[in-house]
Amino acid sequence: MVVKNICCLGAGYVGGPTCSVIALKCPEIKVTVVDKSKERIAQWNSDKLPIYEPGLDEVVKACRGKNLFFSHDCNAAILEADLIFISVNTPTKTFGNGKGRAPDLKFVEGAARMIADVAQSNKIVVEKSTVPVNAAESIMKILKANQRPGVSYQILSNPEFLAEGTAINDLLNADRVLIGGEESPAGEAAIEELCQIYEHWIPRKRILTTNTWSSELSKLAANAMLAQRISSINSLSAVCEATGADIAEVARAVGLDSRIGPKFLQASIGGSCFQKDILNLVYICECLNLPQQAAYWQSVIDMNEHQKHRFTAKVIESLLNTVSGKKICILGFAFKKNTGDTRESAAIYVAKTLLDEGASISIYDPKVENSQIHEDLKYVGITPEHIESHLSIFKDAYSATKDCHAIILCTEWDEFVTLDYEAIYDQMMKPAYIFDGRKILDHNNLLRIGFHVETIGSRLGQPFKNRRYSTSPQAL
Ligand SMILES: NC(=O)c1ccc[n+]([C@@H]2O[C@H](COP(=O)([O-])OP(=O)(O)OC[C@H]3O[C@@H](n4cnc5c(N)ncnc54)[C@H](O)[C@@H]3O)[C@@H](O)[C@H]2O)c1
Ligand SMILES: O=c1ccn([C@@H]2O[C@H](COP(=O)(O)OP(=O)(O)O[C@H]3O[C@H](CO)[C@@H](O)[C@H](O)[C@H]3O)[C@@H](O)[C@H]2O)c(=O)[nH]1
């Protein structure tokens, strides 16, 4: 079989960009991205796409209506496809067995059942969603149990490694493409079909083929290792604050070791897409009766969580331990720059804590929709009335910071670096505080202007004071 027709179930942050790039690079293949959400599909077919990703608009414009289609008709797309990507969401379970840890596979199962119900010809089904090890086997069970006579399936694991904010570049220049499949002639043939799609733009030596389980586990392992680096640097940032070392200097010194490398060593406020995948790994370890391994990866999550709490506690402590009645501006609500995604964003925790403490919050983020901010805060328990009376959302940083007692920078958007902080200082309440949760601002300039400045991983203007060793470090 030569793949001529691709269907993707799930038009989200992964399905949309991934299939747009496939359509761009494989003009002879018809790519149809479907979603059960009519609203999302309507947005994909409009001028304002449902997700913000640098470069995505251009790719969609180049292919949409030619060989790239967004549709709500899942059945029709499944029927005509040779190869089907499952790119549906796999959030952490919020109820029942494995609550708070295991991934909720109901959308993956729903997708598999949909394929089984509709398919009338052979299909290669590709697991693109991030799933636990053995998920391919579960998908196969569903497909086989509902198989029509004469229809056969091959399941491949092809995890996605793109990061939001750089998705198009990551897809075009992937470090590697990973394809796992059944170790049989039919499995190898299916792997080869998918390889040929990626070979339109990815050199063969960067396409890695493995067995299905290795592929599934490699995705969780990659995220776990990345998260572990961030947790490690965040852990060291607390040591820096307590000693007078500067985490930026430490990260640079450590990262110049070629065995360690400089990437993913930026201390920050914490919070990320990683959490659900590491929880997934923890749950797998628990289920496999590997408690030490589960505890190890759990500690990576705990450190990330702790960083958010530590940073927010520092804000409140600096503001004389009370924020009640104060107006505080949060700059940035997305979990990182160049995306409108707020899932697991540290800003949600910061905003909730400050609202619980009685502060009024003003928020500005260049790409996050107002409705998303409302939804996120309601989800963490802030009542609509409280939101109505204590939250304002602005369209620019200058309006958002006016009359505030403090600014908390939660997302590292480039535009925050070049704001006119003199003008901002002039229109703030005094003393004016700024908490740089991303370490992107010019702290010396802010101090010169008159701000009280706090950041992560260094104690500005007070080196080596109040060392907190209970004993000398050598004696520890
Ligand atoms: N967001 C990322 O950066 C990223 C990167 C790599 C991997 N992943 C993984 O990829 C998967 C998808 O993530 P996402 O961020 O794109 O999620 P998302 O929530 O943005 O999109 C998932 C979409 O799937 C749709 N859907 C659910 N069930 C469906 C069905 N049966 N048929 C059709 N559509 C259905 C939903 O309506 C939703 O629009 C997850 O497993 C995630 O962990 C995400
Ligand atoms: O040095 C760093 C790097 C990142 N972060 C933060 O860590 C989080 C995650 O960042 P990043 O990994 O860049 O974005 P994601 O879109 O979450 O991408 C991760 O998660 C995806 C979903 O599984 C994977 O596909 C990607 O490979 C993996 O990088 C964000 O809040 C970043 O601000 C830091 O605090 N310091």
Beta strand count: 14
Q: Which geometry do the CA atoms define? A: globular
Count of structural domains: 3
Major sheet characteristics: 6 strands, parallel
End-to-end C-alpha gap: 65 Å
Q: Which secondary-structure class do the elements indicate?
A: alpha/beta
CATH topology name of the largest domain, in short, is Rossmann fold
Q: Which ions, cofactors or small ligands are bound in this entry?
A: nicotinamide-adenine-dinucleotide, uridine-5'-diphosphate-glucose
Low-confidence stretches: 463-476
How much strand?
5-15%
User: For this structure, what is the CATH homologous superfamily of the largest domain?
Assistant: NAD(P)-binding Rossmann-like Domain
Q: C-alpha Rg, in Å? A: 24 Å
Provide the spatial order of strands within the biggest beta sheet: 3-2-1-4-5-6
Kindly state the percentage of residues in helix: 40-55%
CATH class categorisation of the largest domain: Alpha Beta
Description:
This protein is an alpha/beta fold. It folds into three domains: 5-202, 3-Layer(aba) Sandwich (Rossmann fold), CATH 3.40.50.720; 220-303, N-(1-d-carboxylethyl)-l-norvaline Dehydrogenase, domain 2 (Orthogonal Bundle); 306-455, NAD(P)-binding Rossmann-like Domain (Rossmann fold, 3-Layer(aba) Sandwich), CATH 3.40.50. It has 18 helices and 14 strands. The strands form three sheets. Strands 3-2-1-4-5-6 form a six-stranded parallel β-sheet, with helices on both faces. α1 crosses α3 and α12 packs across α13. The longest helix has 32 residues, at 212-243. The protein is globular, with a radius of gyration of 24 Å. The relative contact order is 0.08. The structure holds nicotinamide-adenine-dinucleotide (NAD) and uridine-5'-diphosphate-glucose.
